[in-house]
Amino acid sequence: MLEKFFQLKAHGTNPQKELVAGITTFLTMVYIIFVNPQILSSAGMDTQAVFVTTCLIAALGSILMGIFANLPIALAPAMGLNAFFAYVVVVGMGYSWQIGMGTIFWGAVGLLLLTIFRVRYWLISNIPMSLRIGITSGIGLLIALLGLHNAGIVVANPATMVAVGDLTSIPCVLGALGFFLIVILAARGVYSAVLISMVVTTTLGILFGDVKFQGLVALPPSIAPVFGQLELAKSLDIGLAGIIFSFMLVNLFDSSGTLIGVTNKAGLTDEKGRFPRMQQALYVDSISSVSGAFMGTSSVTAFIESSSGVSVGGRTGLTAIVTGLLFLMAIFFSPLAAMVPAYAASGALIYVGVLMTADLAKVKWSDLTEAAPTFITTIMMPFSFSITEGIATGFISYCVLKVGTGRWRELNPCVVAVAALFLIKFIWVDAH
């Protein structure tokens, strides 16, 4: 039955390999079920409920990907967009988490519509690589800043804007230790580096009396505090259009890039980056995002950590299903999520920042019309504390520089349209 449905032999694999691959992928990305609740709790969401919804949507998305797309790719709430939602939209801008969750929902609906009308891949191919790198890197710096702040390594200062915190405090020491531990383990090829780091730092927090032990296993908490609580009507306010667009655009890049990257590593793509059942995979990805917002968690995306399962032989959807089932079993470990302190997750945030800025090396720095927009996009996200403003200034500066240097023919309608929409936002919406 498994052979017929997943075509294991045709993909050069077997059930044993797929099982090991699924477990490997799970161990690599399971940190999200602890980090995501910790981040979303900053927005006032119930930690225990978010833990369960994170497990459920990761299970649902991964299993659907395995069944309908037959790809070894797992899904879960995206790092970066969860921080943008909690710290920027809710804490920074003052919106309720219910309205913020509504913007995630509408962004996911937009992504689904792009998929239905088959313009998603076209949109990706028409946005310059320099801007795509700038967006990814900017989110990485923003996430890293949040990680440094959560550990107390970087604090606010009225004179210099930011300053170094108390480096001898427990959060600071354990946060830094967690980061270094992740990097050391990852450099040594340990797939579950982030999970191990969080376990070590949380355990040390318990030993130092900074964290209270609350048990290991319990019946799953109710998801009622977050399930279906999003504000759909209020989140459609024109003032939130930029945020909705940001959620859609970033998720578009993140998920599509991961799908192409992982399938390429698995040897499933052609020379144009297309892979079998591509449309089904895009549908699963989009529907999972819509479902995730309704269930009460941040934007859902394909996880690049799926490549760890591919590296040990995962080639079919059976890998994703195994990962999904493990996420489903994880709902019984909610006491662990309640124990994870902010500084235990800070190392993971800083590490993700490192990974997301890696592509800056690919920027053509000798071409200022490409380099400057990348730089502006990248630095504006942490400095303005907004992904939206970073994307906006990046697109606008790209158009200005191409026109100003007489290279306007390098612009395409997609880039011009996005830049124009953001200009309208700045001039009309924000000014009023």
From TrEMBL:
Against Pfam families, the record matches this protein to: Xan_ur_permease
Q: What is this protein called?
A: Xanthine/uracil/vitamin C permease
Q: The organism sits in which domain of life?
A: Bacteria
PANTHER family according to UniProt: XANTHINE/URACIL PERMEASE C887.17-RELATED, XANTHINE_URACIL PERMEASE C887.17-RELATED
Lineage here is: Bacteria, Pseudomonadati, Pseudomonadota, Gammaproteobacteria, Enterobacterales
Cellular component aspect of the GO annotation: plasma membrane
Q: List locations, semicolon-separated.
A: Cell membrane
Primary localization class, coarse? membrane
The annotated topology with respect to the bilayer is: Multi-pass membrane protein
- Which keywords belong to this entry? Cell membrane, Membrane, Transmembrane, Transmembrane helix, Transport
Q: Which family does it belong to?
A: Belongs to the nucleobase:cation symporter-2 (NCS2) (TC 2.A.40) family. Azg-like subfamily.
Task: Supply the InterPro entries for this chain.
Answer: Azg-like (IPR045018), Azg-like_bact_archaea (IPR026033), NCS2 (IPR006043)
